[in-house]
Amino acid sequence: MSNSYDLVVIGAGSGGVRAARMAASYGANVAIIEEFRVGGTCVIRGCVPKKLYVYASRFRDLFDVAPSFGWTVDASFDWPTLVANKEMEITRLEAAYVANLEKPGVEIIRDRAVIADPHTVHLVGQDRDLSARYILVATGGRPFIPAIPGAELGITSNEAFDLPALPHSILIEGGGYIAVEFATIFAGLGVHTTIVYRGDCVLRSFDDDMRRGLEAGLIDRGIKLIYQTTIAALSRDGADIAATFSDGVTAPYGAVMFATGRSANVDGLGLQAAGVTQHANGAVAVDAFSKTAVPSIYAVGDVTGRAALTPVAIREGWYFAETVFNNNPLAVDHSQIPTAVFAEPEMGVIGLTESEAATHGDVDVYLSRFRPMMNTLSSRTERMIIKLITQRDGGKVLGVHILGPGAGEMIQLVAIPMGMGASKSDFDRAMALHPSAAEELVTFKTPSYTYRNGQKIGG
Ligand code: FAD
Q: Is 330 a domain residue?
């Protein structure tokens, strides 16, 4: 065990693990410090368990349409089985992450780390110091919990994965992707689900047609939406939790979950004393190469508040290692990041929303709403929505928005032509694949409507 390293990484999540592995592969002597579980938020209590639970919840929709295809299904659901199988899978992934760190020689230290000075990291549990040529802060984010009376009675996404039993009902506060994803998970698993949100429609900052389409999908699945309201207080009500809302109404729920945003994980990290500057929201301020105000301290991932997504944290960690340990300065391009909301219906987006594009010169909007083929034999009326936004007269594609089955997978592929600066004519040249939903993307003939000088024309 050494006390001196080329690189000490704080946090073994998506960004930290990639940076540590890459730096070690370039010959650096690297230690990574983790206070919880190797793999970080994504593997342990984020993307991976979330997607597994989304799969579990989607069987309900399949069972709904199954009779129209001739099937008779007598289904029941067992929550402990899902939780146990999820745990098995994330434990397997955690072991794979450990092996991948150990292979290039990264030392894994299980402890809480605090920065003592620009070249020293203190291990709190072991009460000893490590000296480091470089320190990488990759401590991620944590759920923000509103300061209201009884807040301790609520849970966050951290606890939601491992509830001892499914509640009969749940109130979820928030309107972001974590709120709507967990709402569809719980509703799909049979829990009476309510979203309470201070705004007037879920998923602020997404395209309006997609937001309204997804909202309709939530309502269609029995999810109750309470807008322009917040939770003012929580209290015990027998086995339930009573939520008192900002309008004075009180109602009991089996569980209450806060999905009210996430903040940078920086408390007690010693950043200020070391001279690292932070944004007003606590996120670590970095330059294009992820360097902080202190030349020996870098930061990647959610803690920097750039784009809180796993592939972004991984890319930032990789480029940090290239820049510092491979003499190959690389800056991550944060434009055009494909994003999915794994709700029901699913949403996939890349590029500008319609309202953003309308302020970027003259644009054409191609819009298609149709029943997904899977639903056509059933009485389900839900529409899939596909929207393509281009510069005027078939120019460069500025945004693609998809709501419906497979939206995330489609958007990942759309990210390739978008990154190449594709125009509508490039999409048109592609042969359609039939029958598919994605063929809509390459068969749009005339714009559904346009924006000229910021004014909507037609539609
Ligand atoms: P993290 O993965 O959070 O890792 C930080 C690590 O640092 C943690 O393991 C933590 O324990 C450790 N740590 C913190 N402080 C210290 C300290 N002082 N000492 C030692 N260790 C410390 N992203 C997607 O791209 N797609 C998704 O579908 C998706 N779904 C999500 C669902 C949920 C419910 C959540 C919460 C997040 C989701 N995300 C998703 C976001 C994604 O998980 C994060 O963007 C990603 O994990 C960020 O990686 P990171 O390396 O910055 O931090």
A: no
